[in-house]
User: What shape does this take?
Amino acid sequence: MTAVARLLQTHRPGSEPLRVLSASGQLGYGIPEAAFAGGMARAPHFIGCDMGSIDPGPYYLGAGVMAAPVAMVRRDLELVLCAALDKGIPLIIGSAGTAGAKPHLDATLAIVHDIAREHGLRFRLATIASDVSADRIAAARDSGQLVSIGASDLDGALGSGLPSPGDEELRACSHIVGQCGSETFQRALAMQPDVLIAGRACDTAIFAALPEMLGYPSALALHMAKIVECTSLCCRPGGRDAMLAEMTLEHFTLESMNPQAHATPASVAAHALYEQADPFRVDEPTGTLLLHEAHYEAVDAHRTRVHGARFAPRARPSLKVEGAARVGARVVMLAGIADPTMLGILPQALETVEARVRGLVPGPWTLHPHIYGQGAVRPLPPAQRSAHEAGLVLEFIAPDAALARTAAGVFKQNLLHFGYPGRVSTAGNLAFAFTPSELDANEAYRFVVYHVIQEAPLEDIFKVAILEIDGAAGERPERP
Amino acid sequence: MTSAADRPEVRKRLRDVAPVVRSKNAGPTQLTIDIFFADAAGYTLAAHSASLTPSAVAALYGQSVAQMRRFLLPEIFAMKFSMPRQIVAGSPGDGDVYGAQQHAPLLDVELDPALDSQVDAHAGAKS
Assistant: This one.
């Protein structure tokens, strides 16, 4: 019997609490081992891990690569996979490989296969493919079903959001994904796997799908999921240690597996604000979680009990979609500047040099200067701009890396020897920490799609598959 | 709500009463700022301050007031502002992909308890 089948057959809500262990909010950065072991010692009914996010920017989705270092991803996957299979409990992972598109899911599965071979593991694996075709986005747009996020959910206020993508922009997207929710996870879990690895997914689905299947109320399950998907971030002090939720039909109790991290009513309530534009509403494909009446009470100094969230179902499921397109090849030039006169005229100096370099290096390259100390992070009033030292990051983007390198190299030398009124440092304007100061910085991408498709046919979009993994069948890799 | 006797002689800055002032993306198109106050007094001072109204914070961030949302959470002594990002996260020209360092302009905002009415202090009130 598989782990999911066993849980569905044996667990009776109301007879004992459901223990949900959140092992990682961002798998691949080193799951803290002591807290995870502490969580396993509490005999959880299943383990969940979030593995992705849109936060690291468009590069990972666009390029199809993971943000987390592969060696650490392997270490974390090995830890949770072996622990779950050892205890015969389900392991659920969402947003595989950071962005959850096909290459991310494939890379994650390749690591899982490798771990299975090394340890001789046998298990039933369900997968969810989250890729969405450009044609589907275009069709949604053409039928008025594509709504920009940041514009739609402002209750009448004007948000900017991304504009409606054109056909060419959509074709330029290397990957487009949709965030599947509990409903899709439940379709995969109905196939009774031991392990479920989903492409791009709502963070909540990882932790809410099984409780909902077992009969726990959606509002309670989703609220619990929304908090534990960040592990111990909801505690004081916050952190990355595993988090345990114990659910009954009426409430759930949160407890960090780090004895020094305390879930207090204030710390847990505060977490509802984290990365949420609206602290009282969480949109899911099948409805909206409403937190206006959520109630948090201390069980003791370490644990907090929660109830009171409501769930407003949507008549038709909607789908959040994300897509990234290549902008060009990126080269950056790094230098420091310490001359007070040069610091005073830096923006004008860059403009003048840019004009000069455009004459020397024709072509469609763009320059994005970041002057650290003078407003690179946010606009600075003149009085706060650094007059004694600033860091210069010049970002060159061009259709191909050769042009970006050429523009960067020529720019560097022209800025180094740029003459300006009152110049005293006539031997050079720039301090390099190393050479070459111009570095290839991968490809540049941008988000083209960050929208909601209203009335999305979720079953048609998300493909569920089952793999029987038998790590003992093949030859095991030789170990040194 | 705030009497003249409560009024400090030297105006407090936000950083004097709020141990946590943080910013972060809420998705790549929106920025959200969470302010947690040390106690009810700090929260009340800030919630009544003319310098932390949606329009004052909109001006601070170069936004139109229609795009600035403020949430008051008196039960946990917290205040939140959400607004569109000026550049979509990670697009060329962005300087803060996570939006994690956009809180700074608020730190030295002086709190002015002159605004006695106008504030709906009910739990979950949006203003």
